[in-house]
Structures
1.
Amino acid sequence: MPINERYTRHELLSVIGKKGQEQLAENRVLIVGCGALGTTIANNLVRSGVGLVRIADRDIVELSNLQRQMLFDENDIGSPKAIAAACKLEKINSSVIIEPVVDDINYRNIEDLIKTMDVVADGTDNMLIRFLINDACVKHAIPWVYGGAIETYGMTFNIIPSRTPCFKCFIPDVPEPGALPTCDTVGVLTTIPAIIGSLQSTEVLKILLRKKDVNKNLITYDVWNHSFESIQIKKNPNCECCGKHYFEFLNGKLKEDIISLCEKGAIQISPVKKTVVSFDELEKKLRHVGEVENRKVILRCKIQNYELNIFQNGRAIIMGTNDKNLAKSLYAKYIGF
């Protein structure tokens, strides 16, 4: 198909047109996380003709991902998500440069990943990484689009440095371990990540095209109840990040402590925020996914080939692996950062 025919439907749109389509081809977007949101965003942006799409993800494709992560099929199980996604996307649009990055996003590498980007899109399910993205994007004045989806609802919010509140204005502190539900403990409907990811994709395109009608509110939507809200988030003039430009996550002062216990075949993770975990609440969540034993001072959960030993201060020893990235993924899935 000739390249000038590919984007005909975009070029007919008054909000994009031929000039806008040409502009998209000059832009670069980083997608952090290649799960349900990330695959939706990547699919939309590549089909839309964004010039370069970089996809960063540390995980591999699992069978349970196929229910909602649109770029993967059964043949991809066991492959790195970023690589599997790139292979599909290159077949969808060979004129777009796809850069897969199979790595753990942290304070050491995030600035290198974002520094040549025009927009960053949030496809992660990890709150700590979102605070890190926020620090890096505010520091380098790069817009980013937050998104989250769980159960039947989701939300999205644009952070445009110097023009909007930042993520830390919206959520001032890292939630306590176990305080937030995760897709692996309460589930997620197939359709809601596709909806939220599409809203994020649209906002990314607006930002790239420098449109004046970029959304400035937090958008929430429950697909099951069809409830929609647009909520104004106020900028905090005393915000440590966008107000005072103190980047505690980017500076590495707030990070999880990970230790390999080689002799035990285990990884110990101590979270950023020390707290008292509610074993009763966490036990209710984990009973849906594995065998749980509450010993009052330690909560033990056996999930497939792994055993999570969780202490009341949020520290966990994850048995059955010496892979730190895998241990972090298990912690994020079942306990939550």
2.
Amino acid sequence: MRELEISARTVEEATRVALEQLGVTREEIDITVLKKGKSGLLGVGAEDAKIKVMLLEDEDERQPGAMSDAADAARQVLSDILHAMGIQATVDVTGSGDEGVPVTLNIEGDDLGVLIGRRGQALSSLQYLVRLIVAEKLKKWVSVNVDVDWYKKRHYEALKKLALRLAEQVARRRRPITMEPMPPDERRIVHITLADDPDVMTQSTGDGDGRRVVIQSRKK
């Protein structure tokens, strides 16, 4: 059983973030509300909600051979790549890859910075390679997420907090803010984080590696 704590503007939003990070459904986690959060008056005195999420494991899922074909194939592919690179590490698997639930592979070990690369570029390439090989093996596309010591999870959390801070500035000043160029998965995090914000909206602009997210006020 694994647990983590998530903070967001509301309990519902924190729950959605937890499900995205763990790659599971609501039925596969247990949620404890640590703080309900406050909206404050005109943003003053606002406090984020905070929850503790525990990933539930069925007894059958802990038995050898219970892993889905997609999850087992993804883990084997990644393990083979790491072995070929001469990297000693373990691969933790969550998610089945079935019915839209992604397979999440987290690599754990020492001195794994080479797998992350500058701004996560090496990790993105590794994930893409694993997805291609798994798709070829199973003759179907499987959503596979690859992480290293939960680097992406921590990075996404920091990115969400940044997006919320910038959104507050945009709402207060009513002037758009253009973020730095980001890859598609990071832009998606920003869009999702601010999707329900009543004061701001987001859009992507630019081409290729220079594509950015613009946060702008909904009010003229």
3.
Amino acid sequence: MTESPLVWPDATRAGAFSAWLQAHAPAYGLLAETVQPASADASFRRYFRVRTADGGSCIIMDAPPAQEDCAPFVKVADLMAGAGLNAPRVLAWDQAQGFMLLSDLGARTMLEVIEQQPEANKAQRAYDLYREAIDALVRWQLASKPDVLPPYDDALLKRELALFPDWYVAQHRGIAVDDTLRAKLDGLFAQIKASNLQSLGGARVFVHRDFMPRNLMVPESGEPRLGVLDFQDAVYGPITYDIASLMRDAFISWPEDFVLEITVRYWEQARKAGLPVGEDFGEFYRAVEWMGLQRHLKILGIFARLTLRDGKPKYLADTPRFITYARATCARYRQLGPLMVLLDEIEGNETRVGYTF
């Protein structure tokens, strides 16, 4: 339990929270005096943990309605429960004020559990947890239906890719995105979008959109399944996205043989379950890498924006990881060679292969 006081942006919201908590404490056995910060994320949402009279705990989400719409969170939480995933249950929701009471999935993320393992046990523990993550992902995808979640379509892909030149290149690196550079990027982005929308016959499923070890919770005891968090941005889109997100993580990197092993296991399990991952693993892996490349570029833009606009500089420290991911993918596909040249120019590195425009 984090022992630090709650900090509020203004006295009005602090008072509203106190009144809301006191009103809900009797019905749910909440011990109001035990409220402590649990975590915060890249948005305006914050999370608190509060103990309960029966010895358990709940999570409180603080999501100012002027900045955060919690309706998608509630909708996706219900979809995940229906799919058999271990997602937080919404116990109470004050939509007007932006306070929500949730079941508590614990304080141990998959990332933390892996990183805390002794070196002798780390590889096996990671392998076991990634297998559990694959089980959850397949269950989620099997529940997919069209016209339930927003589409992950050309327009959304375009908006996401635009974050890279607008925030990472122009704002963070201070490089003018002139007409020539914009034209080069537009041509490369068109290839990436076409691949992501058309590969594997355009297979579509529910997409968590941030399915990674920091958003997967390892239960303390009792519950056998990994908990799943941070799913409010879920969409209906390419089947390759979540496995790409899982294996090319923002906060931990794996050797290529481990990435391949887990991706093969996912592909085999998904194919056996009847998911549209195709019969050729090589074709599937190419689609995963191109989908991952789109995500890498998007995250570079998002991390720069979080630093420069939102005052959250810790994210920018992980941008070299995504440059490495992106370069590795570009090096494997000749069509992407020009993008590697651009990345090296932006980073001030010497290109080590002979690609040019």
